[in-house]
Design brief:
This protein has about 290 residues and is mainly alpha-helical. It has 13 helices and three strands, in the order αααααααβββαααααα. The protein is elongated.
């Protein structure tokens, strides 16, 4: 009983550590959930008694564990999330609680296969905008493509974060708690302002007064609603591809680089910490790398 109680307290302390370190809300939730899975699997084992064998047992279990949300097993990416969470957790224990031996320090696991994500062409992006049938749909495309926001950043977007006159959109808490200012073109600013004046402030039912984008019930527009709207736009545009919202962010990064914008500026636009991330993330030409 004491073992389980200790594990619960450790998870609370671990979560506080992640928040203080500046991890984003979604990352904190994911890492904590993965560690809860691990501790639940080994609920009778004290934390200081964990060995590489315990981790291998759990890793093997993940290979055969059924998916709770759909048929089949867990994806390589989801399993890799657990491996990442274990590394962060045991590094934290080693640093804060004097763990004698860190079992994760000697283990290596295969990385999931890379996602062959290809950016949309500028013609395909144009087709999406041409098939938008409301100011709200146009605003959605601008938020994810023209402003390059992540899905979580779009969900958290507030009215106060968008300054139409100065044409600046502020991301108050991006990945890793990093703030950034996103410049908008005159067209982007005007079309976001059109949504605000024509639909946002005239919406009858409003349950979240601060949110910029609202769903039909008046609540802050959620990730699923954004995904469904994009799917409708893709169908109208005749783009029969498996495309997520993140493809729009990926696409604007590539298009900015193709237009000749320095990779350092694209890094800042996206909110990346390192140039290497931007190089991997977007399609970078050889001549752009040589200029670094």
């Amino acid at each position: 009983m004491n073992t389980i109680k200790n594990q619960i307290n450790q998870i609370k302390d671990f979560k506080n550590y992640l928040v203080q370190l500046g991890y984003g809300k979604n990352t904190v939730s994911m890492v904590v959930r993965c560690m809860e899975d691990f501790l639940e699997y080994h609920r009778a084992t004290d934390t200081e008694d964990f060995t590489t064998s315990h981790i291998h047992q759990f890793y093997d279990y993940l290979q055969i564990r059924p998916n709770k949300h759909k048929q089949g097993g867990l994806s390589e990416q989801y399993i890799n999330h657990h491996v990442y969470a274990l590394r962060v957790f045991f590094n934290w224990l080693e640093a804060t609680q004097g763990l004698t031996e860190n079992p994760m320090s000697v283990l290596r696991f295969k990385h999931p296969k890379g996602n062959p994500r290809q950016p949309l062409s500028q013609e395909e992006i144009k087709a999406l905008f041409e098939n938008a049938q409301s100011v709200k749909e146009t605003a959605l495309l601008h938020i994810f493509y023209s402003c390059g926001l992540r899905r979580s950043e779009a969900v958290d977007l507030e009215i106060k974060d968008i300054h139409f006159k100065t044409r600046i959109l502020y991301v108050r808490e991006g990945k890793g708690a990093k703030r950034r200012a996103v410049p908008m073109t005159e067209r982007v600013s005007k079309e976001l302002e059109s949504y605000y004046h024509q639909e946002r402030i005239t919406q009858v039912r409003v349950k979240d007064a601060g949110a910029f984008m609202l769903g039909v019930t008046g609540k802050r527009m959620c990730a699923d609603a954004y995904n469904k709207t994009l799917k409708i736009l893709l169908e109208r545009a005749g783009l029969c591809k498996e495309i997520s919202l993140h493809y729009l962010r990926h696409s604007i990064a590539t298009h900015l680089l193709e237009s000749g914008l320095a990779i350092e500026y694209v890094r800042d636009f996206l909110g990346h910490r390192h140039l290497e991330t931007t190089q991997i993330y977007a399609k970078v030409h050889d001549w752009q790398v040589q200029k670094l």
